[in-house]
Write a structure and sequence with these properties.
Length: 182
């Protein structure tokens, strides 16, 4: 999964989240289903290199869907990015709990059906979410704040107030200096 982080991140940043979600859903569906077939047919039915490739596809699909969700959340709530990205991050972590719990209730003691659930469930969940993802167009190229304009214009008051100074060990590590009387 993490081997795909850099290329998928570049894809999401340049083309937006929709292509990444589409790639993610297809890779998840294509990745888990042959692993299920190899499990059902037993040892020797599929080479290790093919199992490695299909496992790589599941990682690629997870990374693509995850990156697109994080990017979409961060763009839709720019003033609350920490909270906005925390939800897809926690959902990603809890998805394993969700799928194993669902499989345990619906298909107790059946690894084959669990792999089928992962193949169909992850494909459907990610593919359907693609239709609900909206990225505000103004957020793609907007400056982060009004401070950028003042700083770029060379405002001496702003430049002086952003200077970092050393503090005593008992205080904060970073403080900004202020002119007396302000």
């Amino acid at each position: 999964m993490y081997a795909c982080g850099l290329p998928v991140g570049l894809l999401v940043d340049t083309k937006g989240p929709t292509p990444a979600v589409l790639i993610g859903s297809i890779a998840l569906g294509i990745g888990y289903f042959p692993i299920r077939q190899a499990f059902d047919q037993g040892p020797g039915s599929m080479s290790v290199s093919l199992l490695f490739f299909f496992s790589f596809l599941t990682g690629l699909g997870s990374c693509s869907a995850f990156s697109a969700a994080i990017k979409t959340s961060a763009l839709n709530w720019p003033h609350h990015r920490g909270s906005a990205t925390a939800f897809p991050l926690s959902a990603f972590g809890l998805s394993a709990f969700f799928f194993t719990s669902l499989s345990g209730v619906a298909f107790p003691h059946s690894t084959s059906n669990f792999l089928l659930l992962l193949s169909a469930g992850t494909f459907i969940l990610v593919f359907v979410s693609m239709f609900f993802m909206r990225v505000p167009h103004h957020a793609l190229y907007a400056k982060l704040s009004a401070l950028d304009d003042s700083y770029d214009a060379g405002d001496p008051d702003l430049s002086a107030s952003l200077t970092l100074t050393r503090t005593r060990s008992g205080g904060s590590k970073h403080t900004t200096t202020q002119e007396p009387g302000k």
